[in-house]
Amino acid sequence: MFNIKQCIAPVALAFSLVACSSSDDDSDPIIIDPPPPPPLEYQFELTFGNLTNAQPLSPILAVLHQDSSIWTIGEASSSGLELLAESGDNSELSAASFVTANATTADVLPPGMTETVTIMTTNADALQLSLVTMLVNTNDAFTGNSMIDLSSLMVGDSLSLRSAVYDAGTEANSEASGTIPGPADGGEGFNSMRDDVDYVSRHPGVVGLDDGLSSSVLNNEHKFDNPAMSVMIVRVQ
Questions:
Q1: What residues make up the domain containing 226?
Q2: Is the residue at 15 inside a domain?
Q3: Do residues 64 and 148 make contact, with C-beta atoms less than 8 angstroms apart?
Q4: Is 136 part of a structural domain of the chain?
Q5: Is residue 8 part of a domain?
Q6: Measuring CA to CA, which residue among 112, 108, 135, 144 is closest to residue 231?
Q7: Distance between CA atoms of 143 and 224, rounded to whole angstroms?
Q8: pLDDT grade, residue 220 (50/70/90)?
Q9: How far apart are CA 42 and CA 31, in angstroms?
Q10: Which pLDDT score, from 0 to 100, does residue 25 have?
Q11: pLDDT tens for residues 15-60?
Q12: Beta partners for 8?
């Protein structure tokens, strides 16, 4: 015998299942964005060598930056360069507004010795490297390299450089007692008065006692040739 209840029940069940299924289809999918990748690090290992006979180098400053230059031949020294070139103090230069990252050797680098530091940045637009240090047995001589472009160095690549000697032009090269901060004299070092040409140039060299300058505290062993410093740069990351 035909039973209408037996026919209606499966149809009602099917309708119920379809209704539940349709409510699930209406929900919006949850999309989780992946975390941003960490910034790319540019890390460089710098090894300095003192090539002079008797000129200790003040703590060597390395800075990464964009377009500014620590010095330009023929232009006046900044106050930060004057402070470094006369006393070996690199604190003002390291804190300059154009500096993105800085590193410095721990102490004075004696002749014939080497020291290594590491400098790092995540700023791909600040891959100009400048290096500077004072020859401490002078009035205001410094050596270094300005605006070395590191942007093309890949991990593992290296670059070897040499550094010439410059005159800050802020203090006369008198070599007189009391004017030189290094061990040859132990003098005052920095003096805010500028009594020289007031522009950066290549250094003419030392004229000491052995050359007939009786007022000098320096002698032939304090003379220097170019280059005064070696630099090995390796990109390690």
A1: 42-235
A2: no
A3: no
A4: yes
A5: no
A6: 144
A7: 11
A8: very high
A9: 33
A10: 58
A11: 444 444 445 556 788 888 888 888 899 999 999 999 999 999 999 9
A12: none
Distance of CA 54 to the CA centre of its chain: 26
- Would you state the structure tokens that stand for residue 69, as one six-digit string? 């230059």
Alpha helices in the chain (DSSP H): 4-25, 79-87, 91-94
- What is the rounded (10 degree) CA torsion for 136, 141, 143, 147? 130
What letter does residue 139 receive in the DSSP assignment? S
Sign of CA dihedral 203, 207, 213, 219: positive
Higher pLDDT pick, 4 / 99: 99
**Contact of 61 with 104, CB cutoff 8 Å:** yes
Both structure tokens of 208: 């000491």
What is the distance between the alpha carbons of residues 180 and 199, in angstroms, rounded to a whole number?
20
**Is the model more confident about 9 or about 143?**
143
Q: Token pair of 83, please?
A: 């402070």
Please count the structural domains in the chain: 1
Burial class, 61, CB count within 10 angstroms (exposed 0-12 / middle 13-18 / buried 19+): buried
Of 164, 127, 131, 132, nearest to 149 by C-alpha is 127
Residue 135 to residues 15, 17, 237, Cα–Cα distance (Å): 93, 89, 32
The answer to whether residue 231 sits within a structural domain is yes
Read off the tokens for 138.
């002078």
> Cα–Cα distance between 102 and 84 in angstroms, integer?
15
CATH number of the domain that residue 61 is part of: 2.60.40.2130
Phi, psi of 166 (to 5 degrees): -120, 160
Q: What is the pTM of this model?
A: 0.85
Count of helices and strands (H, E) across the chain: 3, 10
